[in-house]
Amino acid sequence: AQSVTQPDIHITVSEGASLELRCNYSYGATPYLFWYVQSPGQGLQLLLKYFSGDTLVQGIKGFEAEFKRSQSSFNLRKPSVHWSDAAEYFCACLSSNTGKLIFGQGTTLQVKP
Amino acid sequence: NAGVTQTPKFQVLKTGQSMTLQCAQDMNHEYMSWYRQDPGMGLRLIHYSVGAGITDQGEVPNGYNVSRSTTEDFPLRLLSAAPSQTSVYFCASRKRQEGQPQHFGDGTRLSIL
Fold first, then answer.
1. B37 and which of A31, A46, A111, B88 could share a cystine (Cβ 3.0–4.6 Å)?
2. Could you read off the pLDDT of B11-50 as tens digits, one per residue?
3. CA of B57: how far to CAs of A62, B25, B33, B49, B62, in Å?
4. What pLDDT score does B1 carry?
5. Which residue of A has its CA nearest to B31?
6. Could you tell me which residues are beta bridge partners of residue A58?
7. For residues B105 and B19, what is the distance between their CA atoms, to the nearest angstrom?
8. Given strand B64-66, what is the order of strands in its sheet?
9. Is A13 near chain B, with CB under 8 Å?
10. Number of inter-chain CB pairs under 8 A, A vs B
């Protein structure tokens, strides 16, 4: 069955430090993968998406993610974190068969000044 | 272009009451979905629709009904509210083409006493 796992429930980094949020997926075919960000009390905003082609995708707000088929991973990265990046981040996988979008459990990012 | 609009933003119900959460989109999206978000569980799909007149169950459909009489609207009905349905509910929509990202509403925070 299709599933998405985000191993880290909570991560704290210092402002200016680099960031990597992990995401692993389980899906039989080539997946469509997404990262969303949710600020407190808000809906979800799309950061970036992977469909095919170049395995390193660029998104908004300076984020990027790398698709690694051999590791079934789609980790999100940012070279230098800003205090405004504190939020909850969700990885998601879209099934091309059913059209269902399956989410990971989410990772809460805290940024220390 | 308002995107995905959810009403109400907040609601408190008593156990056993019924209510309808409204969702409307003005982007002519074929696909619409309802998710619930609970701490540590990410977003779970309740029901979804691939077009007017067509609905299907997601991961956690029990206790909820949906209908899709128009492309724009996708209301979610709680027939007899239970405390376990206390959650934040998100409506989302997307184009039918493969891999299109979901657009989310701002959510409805529902408490069942």
1. B88
2. 999 999 999 999 999 999 999 999 999 988 889 999 999 9
3. 36, 20, 10, 9, 9
4. 64
5. A99
6. A64
7. 19
8. B4-7, B19-25, B76-78, B64-66
9. no
10. 57
